[in-house]
Amino acid sequence: MRDNNEIEHKLYYKQHCKILSKVIKEVKKLYYKEVITKSKNKMKTTCNIIHKETSKLTNKSNFKSLRINDHIVYNQITIADELNNYFLNIAGSICNKRINEKEEEASPLQNLFKYFTQPFKDISWPYTSAKEINKIIG
Question: Taking the model in full, what pTM does it have?
Answer without folding.
Answer: 0.37
